[in-house]
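Researcher: We're teaching a course module on how sequence relates to structure. For the next exercise, students receive a sequence and then see the predicted structure as tokens, so they can try to spot secondary structure elements on their own. Here is the exercise chain.
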Amino acid sequence: MSSAVHPAMGPSMGPSMEPALSGTDRSPRTTPRTVLISGASIAGPALAYWLHRYGFAVTVVERAPALRTGGYKVDIRGAAIEAAERMGILEDIQRASTDMRTGAYVNDDGKRIATLPADIFGARAGRDDEIMRGDLARILYERTRSDVEYLFGDSITSITPVSPVSPVTPVTPVTPVTPVTPTDDLDDREGVGDREGTDRLEGVEVTFERAAPRRFDFAVGADGLHSTVRRLVFGREEQFLRHLGAYISAFSLPNELGLEREELYHAQPGSLICAYSSTGDPAAKAWLSFRSPELPYDHRDQEQQLALLEAAFADVGVLPTGGWREVPRLLAAAREASDFYFDGMQLIEMDRWSRGRVVLLGDAAYCSSPASGQGTGMALVGAYVLAGELAAAGGDLEEAFARYEEEMRGYVAVNHAQAAKFAREMTADTRRQIRFRHLMLRILPCMPWKSLIAKKIAEDVQRGANAITLKDYPAAPVSDGAAAPLRPPYAPAYAA
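Model: And here is the predicted structure for the students to work with:
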């Protein structure tokens, strides 16, 4: 999610080598060519784009019945801008920019009491941009749909390592992998954790909720915070999840406030509320965040989530307790929204992101929470790095996965630390702190050194956005004579 408001104001190609993945044996093992990616949001299609260019046959499976085009605004900053430029989608992102003009804090009656340029609220600098998540998803899907097999309305139910002695055909159903507990030593499992076992494997056998079982050379979990692939291969989510002490909800609603490329914020002790409208969208969006210890609920049960949201804001905007008068209407709109979202501000922290021929990407591996404002950028950068390392390693998955982690670990660590900091600073503790924040925002435009202050406000965010230098990887565009991707020897079951 876009870091919309900085915490100070509220929430805040390369060395020569053999042609990549030519399809020939580079060592005793055969170069992997077929890959299954779970997740068709941002990280999955971005990876699919790069892998197709490097000659892989790519299948993307997505639980949703169609491409999910809803969602909130997201920031593209720093290294992610460079990754988008190398993909050739930067101009598409710029054309679809939210083009926000201003941000303002409002009092209980909705009166604007402090207004600043939106880029200061969003801590953006240079070529940084902001786009609706759904627009970015469409851009990536359109860039890949003719070259990648998409399976919508389905999900993985098991991933089983395949040894060389296993028959390649016919493919038959296999026993699902037993869910792993935190005490399991996965490194001792045959062909899952150790390098020798990885080299002995021929691939992974995957079963689905709907489609017939299929075999792939390797699989990627790009299926978000609540990753199915991570659960099946690495174990229960709870052992990797770190709650940052807050929850957030986002959804669409009618633009009855008449907002035009403007975002409005209202602060209450322990919570922050925002409504905004971006260019070209007749609807408005809202998000509400509140502090809370970890709450028990089913992340697929929308009714439970609505009840938690309503309980958190039950007294806001209702006399005599005070608060923005629009909040009850926002809560009512949440119940009618087709794109309602609710989740904790949480980090995913893992010692390793790969096991055997399965690797994790984006939020599935290193979710930085909406508080960081870096989740989408980390997905684009991670996809670029993972695909590049796979190409550079020439089929050695173990080496590629290790190099991917080496490149990304520092970048992830910086953004995780900032997410924890921003989550604490996003909301004020007392009304006195809120009043002081409003005062500082009101006088900022009058200060002679306002540019220096704005730069300082953005400093932490920019540090995270630029905490990695993108390497140059072997250039292998299909149009320039690279090996044509293998196409699956089967008809898509129900590709979009």
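Model: If you want an answer key for the exercise: DSSP finds 14 helices and 18 strands in the chain. Residues 3-29, 166-198, 478-496 have pLDDT under 50 and may be disordered.
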